[in-house]
Amino acid sequence: MAYVEVAVRALVVTVFVVAVWGKAHGGEAWREFVASVRAFDVVPARAVRPVAALVAGCEAVGVALLAVPATVVAGYGLAAALLAAFAVAMAVSLRRGAQPVCRCFGGRGSAVTAVHVARNLGLVVVALLAVAARMFVDDPVEPAGAALAALSGVLVAALVVRLDDVVALFAPVSSPRSR
C-alpha cells in the first residue's frame, strides 16, 4: 500500500506542477487563465484576479506540502479541497449553460464538460484514499520500488493532463456525407 501512496503523490504533484506552470509561464498564459476564471461566472468580477492568484498559489503550496514527509497529509487535504472546489465551479458553470474554456493546465484549453468534472472528482477520491494509506499503513519502501511507483504516478498524471486528447481519441468520428 505504501507504493500506491508514492504513486498517488507523484500523480498529484505532477498534475499540480503542470497546472502552476501552465498558468504562470508567461503573461499571456496568466491572462488566459484569468479570463477563464471570469468565464466560469462563479465569483464576482472584482474577485476574479484574486481568486486566480489564490488558485495558483494554493496549487504551488500543495506541491510544497506533498514534497515534505511531515506535511504530506496536509498536502493531500489541500489538493482534495482544491479539486473539489474546481469540480463544483465547473458543475455550477455547466448547469448555468456556460461553456468556459478550461485552462487548468495552460495551453489551448477546451470547453468544460462533464469529463472535466469527473476528472477532478476522481482526483479527489484518489487524494483521499492516499490520506488513508498514509495514515494507516507504515510499510517501508525500497528505493527501486518507490522509483517505479513514482514513475507510474507521473505516467498517469500525463494521461490526466492530456485527458481531453485521450477522450478525443475515443470520440465517435463523423463520416463525410456521401454524394
From TrEMBL:
Keywords: Membrane, Transmembrane, Transmembrane helix
Topology of the protein relative to the lipid bilayer: Multi-pass membrane protein
Keyword flag S-adenosyl-L-methionine: no
GO (cellular component) term, any one: membrane
Location, primary (coarse class): membrane
BP-aspect Gene Ontology terms: methylamine metabolic process
Membrane-spanning parts: 6-26, 74-94, 115-137, 143-161
Subcellular location field: Membrane
Entry-linked InterPro entries: Methylamine_util_MauE
UniProt keyword annotation of Transmembrane helix present: yes
Methylamine utilisation protein MauE domain sequence ranges: 2-132
Protein name: Methylamine utilisation protein MauE domain-containing protein
Organism: Virgisporangium aliadipatigenens
